[in-house]
Amino acid sequence: MPRMPRTILRACAVTRDFVGVRALDSVSMEVRAGEVLALVGENGAGKSTLLKIFAGVIEPTSGTLESVDDAGVTTALRLRNTRDASHHGIALVHQELNLAENLDIAGAILLGREPNRFGWMDVAAMRREASVWLARVGLDMDPGTLCGTLSIARRQQVEIAKALSARSRILILDEPTSSLSAHETTRLLDIMRELRDAGQAVVFVTHHLNEVLRIADRVVVLRDGRMAGELAGADIQRGRIEELMVGKSFSGATRARQAQDRPRNGPRDGSRGLMLHRVVSTHRRRAAIDLHVSRGEIVGLAGLVGAGRTELLEAIAGVGACDGAVSLDGVSLSGTVSSRVDAGVAIVPEDRARDGLFLRDAVGINVSVAWLPRGARFGVVDRAAERGVVTAAMERLRMSMAARDRTAQTLSGGNQQKSLFARWLAMKPRLWLLDEPTRGVDIAARHEIHEAIREAARGGAAVLFASSEMEELEVLADRVVVMHDGAIVGELGASEIDSAAILRLATGGVLS
Amino acid sequence: MNGVKKNIGLIVLLVITCVIAASFGSGFLTAFNAMNLIQRTALFSILGVGAGIVIATGGIDLSIGSIVCLAGIATPWLLVEHGWSPWAAVPVVLAVTALLGVGHGLLVTRLRLQPFLVTLCGLLLYRGVARWMTDDQSQGFRGEFTGLRDIALAKIAIPGLESFRLPATAIPLTVLAVATGLFLSRTVWGRWLLATGSNESAARYSGVPTAGLTTLAYMACALLAGAGGMLFIFDIGSAQPSDFGNFYELYAIAAAVLGGCSLRGGSMSVVGIILGTAVLQVLRNAIILLGLGSELEFAVIGGVLLIGVSADEVVRRWGRTSAPGYR
Lengths: 512, 327
Prior knowledge:
Number of strands of chain B: 4
Shape of chain A: globular
Structural class of chain B: mainly alpha
Distance between the termini of chain A: 37 Å
Radius of gyration of chain A: 24 Å
Structural class of chain A: alpha/beta
Oligomer: heterodimer
Mean pLDDT of chain B: 91
């Protein structure tokens, strides 16, 4: 039986300024043991700032944190660094997991607290202790396995085990499901539920309202750095959360229309488009893949993490090597990414910070990079034309022109992703390859990116996108192709797309 | 924008070092010393620009000094010992250095070796080859080839100035600086080179031929080191294979870093590199003129470089936290 939630941490009128910008404005909230608290808000709403304050990464400009002990006695907390925070039992699992790849699981979990004798590590004791914590998070693996070989989902479980092993009372997860497939998400939510029932306080940030609806006992919504509202129990409903997030109501009717009357795409041209014949990624040899995406068609790639979706997209783009034949409009695609871009291919990678953006450069530079040769005479770039192309692409995605000269790293996730789309819009590609096109993107930007994808298809482009979000597959795809263990295991037409069917195929099952 | 600010900082630093040198030593503000300084700045800047191009891609080239030696020693060796015509020797030496650079580039991009390792091996290898092929004997022009040597030695009279004449090496440097500056800011390849240095993976996903551009950068660097080595030997007339060009890569890298090239790659300012080289040369000159003893030279240069990059980092951090929209 779950215990009654009891307040153990309180934020009182916490404000945080970054020179000239108020990121967090007088936020007061409580964290309770035995409760799952969801922290939601659009990008830039102040969620990350609040988490960083809880984790001791930054200190509030004003306002206080208070810890409440078993007897109900309140003491002020000053968290100057992450050590202070972990001393008080607060652990943050970052969105970007940071396990040392060369350590084994036991080493990673007990990093800095290794059982030792006179400085010599006691490996057997380490593995024994690590396996206790692994069992708590339901990860049935040899503690001697190297972290570098683990999937993202498993690394996350290791991170959680690490947090638990440090005797944390408050476990904070920053967008824990953003890299997980649907199946792995379910597993993680189960773990969170078990921890809650064991009396742990679990705080998580997410962009996926479905997860909030599935697991949260209480929801805190932030908007523009302020507390927009708090919902608990039966009040936790999608419409009400969205209303608090955006400050206006997204009525149920609007949503239904978006899902049902999805604007039909342009005239299909089945004779043209992307054609894959017996494609096998040479990076990880698996089943051969045959696939056709017509011009004007949007095809979704579903599957669990590790099913081979990213490898397939990268093989088509020329990032990874593959055997077999890939052709676009009947012309064979081969060679480097550069030659395929010339042939009309666009690729938006899964990890935009690592593979997409030039974070230290201006947004304008980020947008025009692929377009440059088209605007050059004898190799010399026409700068006026460049400015024009950048402006047009950014306007189509409704980006603020003030962003053009800012460095990409200062933008929110949504605007960063839009910058990547703007880069390719300027190229008018005939084939779009999108890997998780709206990961870590706020709702408004997500709608705009979806609209840009539909518009590209209406304009006659073939679109192939991988997504772990059922909702995205439902609203965007004309057809969903499901992958499992490197092979295509099924296909669903527009009317058949539903999460249960996709999940069954993705986990290796068959449709009845 | 940021680059302009940095260059103003460097000009201030240059003026300060000049004022200090001039106020203590009587020999600094002479026409002869000015000509000497411009000559040395021009020669070392050529190496600095090469180093900067490689650093802009996120790499490093430690072999510059040894390539200076190899090219500088091989030129009189071919001309004097083997009786080659300058029309054959100069292009062959330049072509060989360019090929060495291509080799570095291919090892870095195809075999994925670390640039530090590849060019460290180059540093040892080319020095050894230069010493072996000349039997470690000093090589020089023995008073011949004066026409050829005038490429580096000629002085251009300036109307109205009696004793000051501009060293001719300023001309190739100016051409190089303008061409490199335009290449980086105006051409597709230059922009892509900087993009490769800024984030190689993102550049590749954007369709940038990163391997080719990186190889091009190593080729340009080695070619400039080769050309620089030739100009150095034209200037001094003869040299020992065992010490000619020693530590020149460090002058080049120091000038590039002082001139605003981040070792993380992605940025480069040709004007900054020339100013950085000038600061280092004035410092070196001042140490000699002030009678501090040349054994202090490296210590002073190291100290100034450390202060310069620390100041830059502090200013950069302050600038970043005050940028709008930072969360």
